[in-house]
Specification:
The protein is of the alpha+beta class. The protein is 45% helix and 12% strand. The chain has five helices and four strands. Helix 2 packs across helix 3 and helix 3 crosses helix 4. The chain is extended.
């Protein structure tokens, strides 16, 4: 969705288009973020009067109007308490599918990244499949 289309949807849903909302929207459109906290930190660099709750509410609003889809985020267990992906389905080019358990998914991502030389012994905190903002 383009900026103006999102603004129109926000207006149609009854939202006032404030400077804070525009700043948050523009920040989201500028980059790829994995969570509200990342967006908040970027927004706070530009305007430290915008709180985390404001960013979080804006994300919820954007999701409600269909501008973003946070369900495309997959999180992998590390050493801290983060959400689990219970199951992952992989579709192959021959139309077969493979259902992977959380443990198998974690193992595949970790070992694949090690084999490619991208990580050593680090724990993976998130894996995000981009759905387009």
């Amino acid at each position: 969705m383009q900026r103006e289309e999102i603004i129109d949807k926000l207006k149609n849903s009854g939202c006032r288009i404030t400077k804070q909302r525009l700043l948050i929207l523009d920040t989201i459109l500028e980059g790829n973020f994995t969570c509200c906290k990342d967006i908040y930190y970027k927004v706070a660099e530009k305007n430290d009067s915008i709180g985390f709750a404001t960013v979080y509410r804006m994300m919820n609003t954007l999701e409600e109007i269909g501008a973003i889809d946070r369900s495309s985020m997959y999180k992998i267990n590390g050493n801290e308490d983060i959400s689990k992906c219970e199951k992952c389905m992989v579709s192959l080019s021959d139309n077969t599918t493979i259902d992977l358990s959380e443990e198998k998914w974690n193992e595949i991502i970790r070992e694949g990244m090690k084999a490619c030389g991208l990580i050593n012994d680090q724990d993976i905190k998130h894996v995000v499949r981009e759905a387009g903002v």
